[in-house]
Amino acid sequence: MSQRIIVLDTETTGIDHRQHRIIEIAGVEIINRQLTGKHFHSYLNPKREIDPGAQAVHGITLEFLKDKPLEEDIIDDFINFIMESDLVIHNAPFDVGFLNDILIRQHKETLTYHCRRIIDTLTISRSLYPGKRNSLDALAERYQIDNSIRSKKHGALIDAELLAQVYLIMTRGQENFDLHSPITNNSKGEISKNRQSILIRTSPEDQLKHQDYLKNMKKENNICIWMDLADKN
Fold first, then answer.
1. Binding residue per annotation — 84?
2. Which of 35, 50, 92, 207 has its CA 20 to 30 A from that of 225?
3. Is 17 assigned a ligand-binding role in the annotation?
4. How many domains does the chain have?
């Protein structure tokens, strides 16, 4: 049976999920520990202001989001993309709180109903490296992964791709890591052979920025998995 993992990240209007909203969501697909090049990505119009502190981190403005879809427009595609997969998230309680709020507002079951289990890489890294910094930046530096673009701004797709690399290195030879969260739903854990992943197209501007990031990664490390996958396809 194929092991399908979705590495998730979000950007938000603030830190409290009870008051704030997701403005960007991205998921990167891994099957049998191989990156497939498929992803889910969407910006969202939050219909509320963005806290200055949050905007300073991700650089996303309300003006940019005004013509983006609402959460109800993308929720079914998102569920289809993550269905029956393991979800890998860094500091999972933060993102899960926001995602569950969207699901509840849209009259859907919460996240654990749709996925097999949720894996928190922050929990894993704290076990592997107690007493050390275990932010995504710190882990990328520890594993010698280029994360230079994050010094300019954060982005959900950029961070999900970076976390995917971190996770694969972190769990190499430890596919059954006992810190992984247990399955907490009634899913059979099998992937439908007939179901296809949902691919949401990003804007031309975002695609150019993303390509620049990938080119810098390849220049720094002489390898970039996503560019190699694109060349093969």
1. no
2. 92
3. no
4. 2
